[in-house]
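Incident review: delayed structure delivery

Summary: a single-chain prediction request sat in the queue longer than the usual turnaround. Root cause was a stuck worker, restarted by the on-call engineer. No data loss occurred. The affected request and its eventual output are reproduced below so the record is complete for anyone auditing the incident later.

Affected input:
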Amino acid sequence: MSRKSNCWVNAVAESFFKSLKTVLIYGNKLISKKQMKLEIFEYIEIWYNKKRRHSTLNYATIYEFNYKNVA
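Output delivered after worker restart:
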């Protein structure tokens, strides 16, 4: 958590959770808990980390950003 007046520190996390809720949770209220866990896992591991480009990472995917920094 950031201190008072440092609201921008949590902006990336808040953006992620807004996207997650908008895409997955609000449209899938009638599926089982087990199925929702699978949907969330697939969203994070397949779409969000490997395909979605992030402006904070200079428009690279998280996967590309981590791979470029290791190599």
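Verification: The chain has one domain: 7-70.
Action items: add queue-age alerting; document worker restart procedure.
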